[in-house]
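Supplementary material to the annual report.
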Amino acid sequence: MRPRGGRLSRIREYAGGLRVGRGLHSLAVPYALDALDPAETRRFEGHLERCPRCTDEVRALAADTVRLARAASVPAPPDLRERILAAVRATEQEAPEPGPDAVRGPGQAPVPGARDGRSAPARGRAPVLVALAASAAVLAMVAAGLLAFALVRTDERLDEERAAAREIAHVLAAPDARAAEARDPRGRGLGVVASRERRQAVVTAAGLGGPPEGRAHQLWVTRAGAAPRSLGLVDGETPVVAHDLRTDAESLAVTVEPAGGSVRPTTAPVVQLALNSVGFGE
Amino acid sequence: MDADDLLPRVAQGDQQAFEELYGLVSGPVYGLVQRVLRDRSQSEEVAQEVLLELWRTAARYDPRRGTALSWILTLAHRRAVDRVRSVRAAGERERRVAQRAEPPAFDQVAEEVEDSLEREWVRRCLERLTDLQHQAVTLAYYDGYTYREVARRLSVPLGTVKTRMRDGLLRLRDCLGAVA
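Predicted assembly:
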């Protein structure tokens, strides 16, 4: 079956692009406007690496889009400033990339073989905290750890991680978001950022180490007069996002359970954190 | 001090430089993100993500590839566009229905935004574009549609959309050149 006119010309354009870069070249403008789909973006960026002329053109077009961007400027919400600055104080930076970077900045697809992004979240502080009360600074600190965790991932799980980062950011952005953290003298503990209004929380465990052979760490939320509810298994320092929390929830706890988890806790908590300082428990 | 001076210092871990940079770019970053996303709380989330990413990845900035501000706003724009597209993909069905009734959303510039010379200038220059140039550029840049989606929305061939986008941006460049 012969392709009809429209499709034929598209195929020609595509093939021409592959051969002489002309069809691809016409994508410079949509690229500068971020108006390509992901597959085309990758294709065009591949082309850019071999086409200095296109790189120049994209740079010139970027100067145009910057004008469009600046024209949209509005003052950021005042509380964003404190939140970001506090987060920055607690967030470790990436070292400069040794290898070739993506073509045009950090919004790029991950560079294969780039830095190992799997290090633990950097918190930039000593683990000496014992039951800190909720405050903007703690919120920012926990937030920074969580976001740093989610943002350092540059591997194939990127989309998944970014989805997690969005969920975390969503909890953090709640007007009533508060944070708390507690550690025991051995450095084991829990951190939480929670929104009573959204009935959500992001929980991280620290210092637990791997569970014993054939066992798993399981996270629970407790409340008076009811059995603990499982929030799932804890995998290292990966944040757990909890939804549909009851406002009378009292505490979070981690227990060691058989691999796969239990319906009810079968051992005493390894670490525990009260939720009253983050607005729950009434 | 402008962003070009500050960003390399930020890459060295200079928090004070970041604070200054925040003062320069938070408005443009937040405004751009909000322009694309419309939704306030989502805009805050994305702006927060972008600004923290800026701190974390400042070392990736390469001045040979453009100005610091351009790099920062490119990052912000991409994050906003990614978000608006995933939101749209989630509501694809409703969107398809709504799209038939809805006129092209190109004329929603500056609702309650503060006035600035820059914006005023850009707005005037945008007005000088032909309708099709104007819509092609703003649907893509401010509304986050791909050029294929823009072509569908405006019922014009892909080639035409690309040409209109190019002509529109070049005309904008000429018009703005006076104050560049």
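Chain A is about 35% helix and 15% strand.
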